[in-house]
Each structure stands twice: as C-alpha cells, then as structure tokens.
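Exercise: predict the structure of this protein bound to inosine-5'-diphosphate.
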Amino acid sequence: QRLFAETTLGRITVINTSSHWSGNYANTTGGSMASGQLSREEALACVGCRHACHILLYADTEAQLFEEIPIRHIILMQMRFDGLLGFPGGLVDPSEESLEEGLSRELWEELGFSLSVTLEDHVSSCHNPSSHLITHFYARRMEEKEIREVERAAASTATDHGHEVMGMVRVPIYTLKGGEGGLPSFLSHSFIGNSRSQLEDALVRFGLVTPEELQTALTHAEQRRKQLWGGAA
Ligand SMILES: O=c1[nH]cnc2c1ncn2[C@@H]1O[C@H](COP(=O)(O)OP(=O)(O)O)[C@@H](O)[C@H]1O
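Solution:
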C-alpha cells in the first residue's frame, strides 16, 4: 500500500468531478490539493503559462487474450514521433480557442476522428512550475466499436499518422505469469511529461484496475526498470 500511496494516491486530487468519477477517492475540491494540481479556472488565470490538453479514450470489452485472459478494457495511448508514449492531444492557446475546442482539433489531426470534447470530460489540471506548462487531462468512455473506429481512422486518414504519431497502442492492464508481463512491462516504458502518472491515476480513478493491482504492477515495473537500467532510471 505504501508504494501506491507515494507514487499514485498522493497525486490524485479531484479537480472537476466529471461524469467518469467512480467515487474511489474523496472529492477534495476546495480542500487541500496535491502539489501541482489546480482547478481549470485557476489554470486559465495563470499569466505566462502554456497549456497542453490530452485525453484518455477507453471502452469495456469482453475480449480475451489467448481465449483465456480477460482484456477487460481497451485504453488508448500513442507512440509519439520521439519514441515516447503519451496520450492524444497537444498544445492549446486559450486566447484563440477554448481548451476543449483546441483538444478536439488536435484529436482530428492525430486520430482522424471527430470527437467534441466537453467540460464534462475534464479530469485534472497540473502545473509544472519549471516549464510553466499546465497539462490538462480529459477522459472519455466510449463503446468498443467507437474505439475500434478511432484506431482504424488513426492509422488511415489521420494527417499526423507516420509523422507526429507513429501509431495508437492499447494499454495491457492484465498481468501475465511471472508478474512482469502486461501492465508492469508497459509501465516500465518511457513516457512523455506526466502522462505516466495521468495513466496511473486514471486506471484507478475510473475503476479500470484496483489499487492493489496497480500497486503490484508498479512494484514489478520498478524492479524491471532497475534490472534494465541498474537503478539509474
Ligand atoms: O500525454 C501527455 N500527457 C501530459 N503531457 C504531455 C502529453 N503529451 C505531451 N505532453 C506535454 O505537452 C507538451 C506539448 O506536447 P505535444 O507534443 O503533445 O504538443 P504539440 O503536438 O502541440 O507540440 C509537451 O511539453 C509535452 O511534454
């Protein structure tokens, strides 16, 4: 529980209780916020800050891996041009368009799929003082067939495909025998910005994995990183 509390729970603060809120954690709006977290309104009032908006798209599925292991949820991330994993989205200039309009525009370029992002989809906003970048995180639950459409469009009609985006990837949330394969291996890859913590928070926030499953995966991911990098990463 300790590892999870330090690496994940400490960062979870509900900024905007969205329709996706699963109620696993107390709503701390108006209370003490985790460091770096701020409300969407506070974020927009920041002078000299840049804004980046990204979204997690997910769906439930009955599919099974090897006709044996339940896949449970399809969760989309992408392999970026720089070889790092991240969520679809990008920089938005709020003086030109709303955060949600900007994110919808980015999604059209990266996914080739028209998705109108709304305030309801907003999950959290996080300020990085050293870069003056505020990362706004959104999430949308979809039907499995819609997610499949997104994947098809992203690889065929999206203008950014093969340029800024190398391809969509699904996040494996199961753990394979031995404890390393699946989510632990995925979490030991390299992620852009704070997208890894956005993913970890969302997995528990939306009930896609249990806190215990995430804790176990993080422990294995850490061991794996130490094996690969000798503790340097
Ligand atoms: O998935 C993400 N979550 C959080 N921050 C991200 C994610 N992807 C990129 N960023 C950060 O957002 C900023 C804009 O990145 P991005 O490459 O998406 O925008 P752009 O395509 O408009 O240049 C970068 O500083 C990057 O570190």
